[in-house]
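for ur thesis appendix - ABC-2 type transporter. copy paste whatever u need, i formatted it the way the template wanted (i think)
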Amino acid sequence: MYAILQVLKLRLQLILRDRMFLLLLVLFPFVFVFILNATQSFQKQPIIPVAVADEDRSSYSKLVVDRFAAKEGIRVLRVSREEAYRLTENYRVEAAFVIKEGFQDAIMDEEMDKTVEMLKNPGSLSYGILGEMLGSEVMRLSANTGAANKTERLYQLYGLKQPATGSLWERVWNYADSQWEPKPLMTIDYKEMSGNDVQTVNRVTNVSNAMLTGMGMLLVFVLLFVTLHSRWLLEERDNGTLKRIMSTPGVLWKFYVGNIAALGLLSLVLVCICAVLARLLFSASLVFHPLQYALLGAYTYAVIGLGMFFSAIFKTSRQLETGAPLLALLTGFVGGCFWPFLPLSGFSEMLALCTPQGWTLAGMKLLISNDYELADILQNILILASFGTALFAYSFYRIRRQAAS
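the 3d part is after this line
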C-alpha cells in the first residue's frame, strides 16, 4: 500500500507540472459554464421567470400584479421599467410587462388600449402565453368595471331605486368579479409534439434540460481529460521505465494502480470544480443524489480503463493525443451527451448503450426525474464497473507483454 501511495504522489507531482494539465483544468470549466449558460437560456423552464414594472401604483394595478403572480408555473419579479428592460435583454426573464401610469383611470373609463407594455427577449417561446395570462386579469377588471358602469347608467336612465345599503356600483363590481371563481372563464391546456402525435402534458416538469446537458458535457470532459493524461503509460514504456520495473517482482501492478489512482483523483477534482461553478453561477445542483456519486465513480473507473486500453494499443503519445479528442467526441455523440434531454429508442438507444456515457446518462435521467428502481441504477453501475475491469485487465496484460519483450 505504501508503494502505491508513493507512486500516486509522484504522478500527481509530475502532472501538476504539466502545462497541458493546467490548460485543460482552466479550459474545461470555462467551456462547461458557457454551454450551461446557453442551455439554461433556452430550456423548457419548470417555472417561467417574468418581470412586471408597476408605474401606476394604484389599487387596480396592484390587484392585477398580485393575481398574475399567484398563477401556476410563473415567478413574478417586481422591478422598475429600467430593470425590466435589462432583465429581458440579458435573457434572465422570458418577458416583461410595464403597467403604465394612468392604468386605473383608463380601466374606469373602459379603455384598455396602450395601458400595458410588453417586452420579450428574442429567444422567448412563451411570451404569448404570458401575455394572455396577464391580459385575462386586465380584461377581468375591465369587464367588472364595465358591468358596474352600465348598471349604474341604467338605474339612472329608468329612475330605478338604488339599494338602501352599500354602493350599487361596488355590489355589481363584486358580483361580476365572483363569476371568475372558482374557475376562470379562460384556461390553457399545454400540449407537446412527440413524433407525429400531440400529447397533453403538465406545465411543470421535474427534469431540467440544463442539468442534463451539463451532465452530458461533464461526461465528455472527463473522458477527454483522462485519455489525454493516460499518455504516461506510453512515456514510461518509451524511456524504459516499465522494463526496469519488471526486473523487480510484484512492483509493476503497484506502479499501475498508483498511476490509475492519480487519474481518478484528478478527475474527481474536475467534477467538483464544474459542480461548484454550476451551483454558484446557475443555482443548479448537478450532483444531488448519493447514487449519482456512485454512477460518476463507476463512469470515471470505466473511462480510466478505456484510457489505459488506448495507451496500451497506441504506439506513440502523438497518436494518443490525436485520437483522444476524436474518441471523446465520437463516444459522446453516440452516447447522447450532446442531446441528453431527447428520448432514445430503438437502434439509437442500443447504440448509446455501447458506450459508458450511454449507461451513465440512462441512470442519471432516472435519478433526476425521480422515477427509478434501485436495481436499475445498480445494474448500470455494475455494467460500468465490469467494463472498466475488463479493460484494466487487458491493458495490464498487454503492458506486461510489451515490457517483457
